[in-house]
């Protein structure tokens, strides 16, 4: 029962609320993960190895960046904190948006920042974990987001939302290609994400 798709990559999406056979799928990497470092609250840190070739809209990527504003990219960084609907050439691309919003994790120029970002790969899947990361404080006091972006060597993507507290209605959730003309959008300025939810993105079976 896909909730959207296909896009130019043949991807569809659904979630654990819709599919009775799918469940929330949080992955515990607390004992094996590496903390990712940010210089400030709007710019990614260094390139990191994915651990496998990740197929994404006709390209294979073995490295990625993590932006503090809730997304993972395979091209240049983008410090845009004011999220938009997708697909859009004005948005970061190519990118996967677990919860693109004006987030404020711990960084070198911390101003009311809170929460760390961790990652771990086992050669078949990579988990990027935003651990109780705060929203920028204006109008979003006491808003903390605990979620994961998971990349699989098959090209599948999952968003795991473990604990979403406060106001979580303004984010962009989805992904888009390098041209910004095709993608999947699960949410933009809506209350889609909530605690104990997993969003599944995959291609239709090849017969």
Write the layout of secondary structure elements.
Elements lengths: L10 E5 L18 E2 L12 E9 L2 E9 L3 E3 L21 E6 L15 E6 L3 E10 L9 E9 L4 E9 L6 E5 L6 E6 L8 E7 L4
Antiparallel strand pairs: 1-13, 2-7, 3-4, 4-5, 5-6, 6-11, 7-8, 8-9, 9-10, 10-13, 11-12
Notable characteristics:
13 strands; single chain; 0% helix; 207 residues; mainly beta; seven-stranded antiparallel sheet; six-stranded antiparallel sheet
Characterization of the model:
The protein is an all-beta fold. The chain is built from no helices and 13 strands. It has strands at 11-15, 34-35, 48-56, 59-67, 71-73, 95-100, 116-121, 125-134, 144-152, 157-165, 172-176, 183-188, 197-203. It has a 7-stranded antiparallel β-sheet with strand order 1-13-10-9-8-7-2, with no helix packed on it. The protein has a 6-stranded antiparallel β-sheet with strand order 3-4-5-6-11-12, with no helix packed on it. A hairpin with a 3-residue loop joins strand 7 and strand 8. The mean pLDDT is 96.
Instruction: Please provide the ordered H/E string of secondary-structure elements.
Output: EEEEEEEEEEEEE
How far apart lie the N and C ends? 18 Å
What is the gyration radius calculated from CA atoms?
A: 16 Å
Low-confidence stretches: none
Structural class: mainly beta
The number of E-state strands comes to 13
Mean pLDDT: 96
Number of helices: 0
- Large-scale geometry: globular
Give the quaternary arrangement of the chains: single chain
Largest sheet: 7 strands, antiparallel
Helix proportion of residues, in percent? under 10%
Strand order of the largest sheet: 1-13-10-9-8-7-2
Tell me the fraction of residues in β-strands, as a range. 35-45%
């Amino acid at each position: 029962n896909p909730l959207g798709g296909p896009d130019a990559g043949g991807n569809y999406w659904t979630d654990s609320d819709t599919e009775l056979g799918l469940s929330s799928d949080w992955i515990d990497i607390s004992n094996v993960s590496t903390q990712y470092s940010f210089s400030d609250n709007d710019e990614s840190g260094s390139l990191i190895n994915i651990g496998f070739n990740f197929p994404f809209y006709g390209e294979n990527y073995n490295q990625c960046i993590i932006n503090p504003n809730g997304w993972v990219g395979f091209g240049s960084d983008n410090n845009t904190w004011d999220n938009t609907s997708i697909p859009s050439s004005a948005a970061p691309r190519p990118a996967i948006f677990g919860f693109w919003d004006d987030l404020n994790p711990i960084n070198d120029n911390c101003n009311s920042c809170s929460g760390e970002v961790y990652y771990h790969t086992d050669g078949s899947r990579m988990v990027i974990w935003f651990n109780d990361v705060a929203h920028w404080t204006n109008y979003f006091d006491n808003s903390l987001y605990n979620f994961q972006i998971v990349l699989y060597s098959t090209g599948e993507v999952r968003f795991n939302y473990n604990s979403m507290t406060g106001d979580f209605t303004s984010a962009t959730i989805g992904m888009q290609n390098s041209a910004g003309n095709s993608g999947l959008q699960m949410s933009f300025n809506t209350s889609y994400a909530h605690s104990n939810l997993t969003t599944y993105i995959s291609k239709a079976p090849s017969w």
